[in-house]
C-alpha cells in the first residue's frame, strides 16, 4: 500500500517522520476498497466459515446426528458425472471476466473524463447519470433489458424492420444477454472507484511528462495509466466479485441455457436440500476466483512497475 | 548545451474571461541568462512561465524562443526543461527511470541513455541513489532529481517555478549556490519564478518585478534594489523609507542603510528608537521621530558592539543624493 501515488507531492525533510505519518493513515484507495471489503466480509467471509464447514460433512451436522466428515462433495464435483458442474464453473468465470473487462473498457474513459472535468456542473450531471441507474433495483433493470433484447423486443423489432436480419438475433437467454445486463448494472461501481483514483493523480505529473517530450498518448501510457492501476484493481475486483456472485440477472437473462455456480448453489440449497454440496461449490468458486484475483494483481503490478499493490 | 533567447511580445492571459492573470507583458531574455520573475502571490508569475512552457496558451501576443515563434508549438516539441515547485517526480519510477524519462521519449539508444543519466546524477551529486523511489528521498534530494531530469535532455531553456520553495532555509541557500553554479557551467537560459526577493537578488542576472499581471520593472539586482522605479518595486524589494515630498512632486525613497544614526540633536530628524531587529551582521532600527513619523535605519556592526537599546534617543542623518526619485 505504501507505494500508492499520493497527492499532493511534497518534500519530505524528515523521511522517517514522513513515513510514519503515511503508514498510520489509511490511503484514499483503502477507503475506496472499503465497500468491496465490506461486501467480501458480509457475503463471503462470514458465510464462508459456515459453508466450508458444511462442505466437509455428509449431512447437516446441526440437524442430523449421523453426520460424518467426508470429502465426497468435492469428489462429486471432480467426477462431474452429470457433465454440468465443470461447465457451470467455467461459465461463471467467463461471465465474470468478460463483464469485468467490458465494464473496465467502458468505465475507464468515462471515469477519466469525469475526473478531469473542469466544469462543476458538468461533473455533477455526469455523476448523476452514473448513479441514477443504481437507484432502480437490479430486478427492474434486468426486466428493462429483457424488453429490449427479447426475440420480440425493441432491438430485434428494429433490426428486422430495417432489414438487417430476417430472423430475430439470439440476444438473450444466453451468456451474451447476461453479460450485457451485468455490465450495465455494475459499470457504475467501476466508474466511481476509478474516478476517485484518477482524480487524485497530480496533473503536474502529466505536465512534467509532456515537457519532457511525451505526446499525449505516451503521457497517458507512461504516467496516467500506471498511476491508476490501484483504481483499476479495486474496480475490477468489485465488479468481478459482484458478477460471479450474481444470481437474479443470470437467472432471468440466461434462461435455461445459462447455468452459473450461484444458480447451481441456490438449486442445491432450495430444491435438492444438499447444503454440503452447495458449500463445496461455494468453496470451489471462491478458491478459483481468488487464484484469478491474485494472478491479476501480479500482472497489473508488473505492468505498472509498482511493487506490492495489495 | 545550446541555449536560446526568449522574447515575449505583448502577451496577455485571462482565466474564465474574468481574471486577468497576465496583462500585456513584453520581455526580452538573453541566451544563457539567469532571469527571475519576482512578485507577490497571484501576480501572474506561474502563468507567465506556463505560457513559455506551453501549458497555457496566451489569449493574445506571441512568444519567441531562439528566434522562432513557438506560440502554437505543442508542449512536448518545445525542448524546454521544467522544474515544478512540487517537483512532480513520477512516484512509480526510480530515480534513474525519472531522469531517463526525457531521453527515452527521444528514443535514444540505451547505452547513451545510461551514460547521460549517470552523468546527470553525478552533476547533482545523487550518485548511489539510483534505485530509490521519490518517496524514499529527502526534499533536497527530490529537488536534485527534478533538476537532473530537466537538465539531462539538454534543453535550450530551463524553467523553474519556485524550485527551492519547499526547502528549509539552510538547504535552500546551499541549493541557490549550486543551481547558480550549474546554470553558469551549462550556459542554459534559466527563467526562475520566485516570490522571495532575497533569492531573486542573490541568484539572477536580471529580474522582472511583476504586480497584478504587469511588469513593473526589469533590471539587474543592483538596479532593482538601488534604483527602484515605482513605489511598488521600492516597497517589495528589501526595506525602504518613503520620504515626505511637496504635494504634486514625485515621491522619494531612501534605503535604511543610507540613514546614519547620530547623537541626538544632529541630523534632520530627532527621535527615539522604538524597536531594534538584530540581524546578525547588522541591526535594523525603527525610529519614531518627534514629529510622529517612522523611519528605518540599518547599522552595520563593527567589531562586537552590541545593538543599541530601544528607547535611546538619536538623530537621523542622510544626504539628498542617496534618496531615489520614484516615477509613481
Ligand atoms: N487555472 C486557473 N483558473 C483560473 N484562474 C487562475 C488559474 N491559474 C491562475 N489563475 C489566477 O491567475 C492569477 C495569477 O496566477 P499565478 O498562478 O500566475 O500567480 P503566481 O504569481 O504564480 O502566484 P503564486 O506566487 O501564489 O504562485 C491569480 O489571480 C490566479 O488566481
Ligand atoms: Mg505560482
Uncertain parts of chain A: 1-23
Biggest sheet character of chain B = 6 strands, mixed
Number of alpha- plus pi-helical segments of chain B: 8
Unreliable segments of chain B (pLDDT under 50, ≥5 consecutive)?
none
Helical stretch tally of chain A: 14
Span between termini of chain B:
42 Å
Percentage of β-strand residues of chain B: 25-35%
The quaternary state of the protein chains shown equals heterodimer
**Most extensive chain interface and residues per partner:** A-B, 31 and 41 residues
What's the rounded overall pLDDT mean of chain B?
91
In the CATH hierarchy, what is the architecture of chain A at level 2? Orthogonal Bundle
CATH homologous superfamily classification of chain A: MetI-like
Helix content of chain A: over 70%
Count of spatially separate domains of chain A: 1
Q: Helix coverage percent of residues of chain B? A: 25-40%
**CATH class label of chain A:** Mainly Alpha
Secondary-structure element order of chain A, N to C: HHHHHHHHHHHHHH
Number of strands of chain A: 0
Task: Classify the secondary structure makeup of chain A into a structural class.
Answer: mainly alpha
Q: Could you explain how this protein is built, in words?
A:
The complex is a heterodimer of chains A (310) and B (328). With 310 residues, chain A is mostly helical. Chain A has helices at 15-24, 28-55, 72-79, 85-115, 120-131, 138-149, 154-161, 175-199, 203-211, 216-227, 229-244, 248-254, 261-270, 275-304. Chain A has one domain (82-309): MetI-like (MetI-like fold). Chain A is 70% helix and 0% strand. In chain A, helix 4 (85-115) runs parallel beside helix 8 and helix 6 runs parallel beside helix 12 (248-254). Mean pLDDT of chain A is 84; it is low at 1-23. By secondary structure, chain B is of the alpha+beta class. Helices cover 26% and strands 31% of the residues of chain B. In chain B, strand 9 (206-211) and strand 10 form a beta hairpin. Chain B is globular, with a radius of gyration of 23 Å. At the A-B interface, helix 9 and helix 10 of A face strand 6, helix 2 and helix 4 of B. Magnesium ion (MG) is lined by residues 45-46, 161 of chain B.
